[in-house]
Design brief:
This protein is mostly helical. Helices cover 75% and strands 1% of the residues. The protein has helices spanning 2-20, 23-55, 72-78, 81-112, 120-132, 135-145, 152-159, 171-199, 203-211, 216-227, 229-244, 248-253, 265-274, 278-303, and strands at residues 58-59, 67-68. A two-stranded antiparallel sheet has the order 1-2. Helix 3 packs across helix 14 (278-303) and helix 4 packs across helix 8 (171-199). The longest helix has 33 residues, at 23-55. The radius of gyration is 28 Å and the shape is globular. The N and C termini lie far apart (69 Å).
């Protein structure tokens, strides 16, 4: 009898533990797992963003008390020719970079996606090497290669009897030279992104199109582009953000010149910070965020895939 009572008691205690003991971890464990990320996100993203938003309505030079000025910083920027000029320069660079990059990147990705291509892994790595090369080092090389007096590019032009060109010293050529640097540096990354999108397309779709007599160009227009539209949309949005944030390239290569023709939106924002005008710089950053978000929404709307 005592054995049965002991067994019953032990079974009861076990049942109680199976119901009560797991309850607390199941409720708390998910929050404990995400707590480090939430804490870092709030500390390094949410708080700086809110602080910058508040700072954009003040006049603050980095020390002392910030003076509340309301919308004055935004009004000043919206009436400033340099602000609109920097946006115009970024828009012109976008037109020189993103359409070319998407078209060339897609064509290269289609070639690399061919299963019959030899040394595909080598080509993928080769296209990615410029992207992982330090930007400042590449920019310094660009300065030397395109120098008007002793640059290699003008040296080649002189060999065929052509005169020197002020690649970095004239407003006519400074933007294309800067755009060429950005294209060389980042197109390989876009190729890898588009290649990943192409590899998600079922090969049987192309086999069926080939049986129906569709040419390679027809398959590209009717199959590849529509099915890779989401990846194309992501690439356009990603490069729009990169172009409008462009800073290191014009800072190292042209310093915004000549005559502010390469002063991008990112470089113009930096100039406010160097002058210690942090309130106006914060307002500039939020206006830039609004512009980039608006452009991104437009591209998402134009390139979205119908479900």
């Amino acid at each position: 009898m005592s054995v049965l009572v002991a067994a019953e008691r032990s079974r009861g205690h076990g049942a109680g533990r199976s119901v009560l003991r797991p309850w607390l971890p199941r409720k708390v464990a998910p929050y404990l797992f995400v707590l480090p990320f939430v804490a870092m996100f709030v500390a390094f993203s949410v708080y700086p963003m809110l602080f910058t938003l508040r700072l954009s309505f003040t006049d603050w030079r980095g020390s002392g008390a910030a003076q509340w000025v309301g919308w004055d910083n935004y009004a000043y920027l919206l009436g400033n020719e340099m602000f609109w000029g920097s946006l115009g320069n970024s828009a012109m660079l976008w037109l020189m970079i993103v359409p070319v990059q998407v078209v060339v990147g897609l064509l290269v990705a289609v070639l690399l996606n061919n299963a019959k291509l030899r040394m595909r892994s080598f080509y993928r790595i080769a296209f990615l090497v410029p992207f992982v090369t330090p930007l400042v080092a590449v920019a310094q090389i660009w300065v030397v290669v395109f120098d008007q007096n002793y640059g290699a590019v003008n040296g080649l032009l002189n060999l065929v009897g052509l005169p020197d060109v002020g690649w970095l010293t004239t407003s006519e050529f400074a933007k294309p030279t800067l755009a060429l640097l950005f294209l060389w540096k980042t197109t390989g990354f876009i190729v890898i992104i588009l290649l990943s999108g192409l590899q998600s397309i079922d090969a049987s779709v192309y086999e069926a199109a080939s049986i129906d007599g569709a040419s390679r160009s027809r398959q590209l227009r009717s199959i590849t582009v529509p099915l890779a539209r989401r990846t194309l949309m992501f690439s356009v949005v990603l490069q729009t953000l990169a172009v409008f944030q462009m800073f290191a390239e014009p800072f190292v290569v042209t310093d915004g010149g000549p005559y502010n023709s390469t002063t991008t939106a990112g470089l113009h924002l930096y100039e406010h910070i160097t002058r210690g005008d942090l309130g106006t710089g914060a307002a500039n950053s939020f206006l830039l965020v609004i512009v980039v978000m608006g452009l991104s929404l437009v591209f998402v709307r134009l390139l979205r895939t119908e479900d």
